[in-house]
Amino acid sequence: MMINKSSIFFVFLMLIFHNIKGQIQTDSTTINKEFLSLDEALKNPESVFRLNLSNQNIQFSDSIWSKFPNLQYLSLKNDHLKKIPEGIGNLKNLKVLDLSGNDFKLLPNTFSRLSNLQELYLNDDKYFQLDKNISILSKLPNLKSLHLENDGLKKLPKNIFELNRIEALYLNNNQFKYLPLEIKGLKNLKYLDIHDNKFRLPNNINEQQGFGIEIRF
To answer: Long-range contact list for 55-63, CB < 8 A, 24+ apart?
Structure first.
């Protein structure tokens, strides 16, 4: 049986069309779908881009996270975790992570492997020891936004300047009595949210001192 060139070309076009169609479906549907159940997400973990496990009493194994190579958004909010799983460092494509409302003190060393993480929520984490976690956070090359809201903070650690890639810092609903001068060490900071803190501005603060950022009081 002979196959002419036109038939081969037709089959080739069909294969291209099929691949393009699959890519469009992935971009428009799969990426935006948010999974709310770990069991459901594990049925086809490679297609999971958003995983919201907030307000759930779940025991996580370290090995489970390596099953989600394409995960970009993860929320473990209000899960009252006393320890963040070390395996979370396997989420190489993670961009947004919400760890708010948990009971842990320290981030695991593997956390520094989250090379694509851009935004991190650490709100309502009363036991979180910011000063002891700076060294890990400073190793995140793409971290631009850091949320430390309602964490009971009274001051910023002196080594906060190590987070020199941060562009947006959220410190609202804490216990600052004064505008923390340590923020001057954050050379790339463009936005500071510090509302709902009962403090007064020092007399020596003015625009000429090089803050150069938008501050929400």
So the answer is: 55/79, 60/85, 60/87, 61/85, 61/87, 62/86, 62/87, 63/87
Q: What whole-number distance in Å separates Cα of residue 209 and Cα of residue 194? A: 19
Q: Tens digit of pLDDT for each residue in 95-130?
A: 999 999 999 999 999 999 999 999 999 999 999 999
Radius of gyration from C-alpha coordinates of the chain: 22
Q: Residue 92: CB partners within 8 Å, gap ≥ 6?
A: 69, 113, 114, 115, 116
> How far is Cα 129 from Cα 166, in angstroms, rounded to an integer?
18
If the chain, 217 residues long, is cut into consecutive pieces of 10 residues, what is the mean pLDDT of each piece?
Answer: 53 50 55 94 97 91 93 97 95 98 97 98 97 97 98 94 96 91 92 87 47 69
> Burial of 97 by CB count in 10 Å (0-12 exposed, 13-18 middle, 19+ buried)?
buried
Whole-prediction pTM value? 0.82
Residue with structure tokens 């020891």? Answer: 129
Longest dimension (CA), the chain: 91
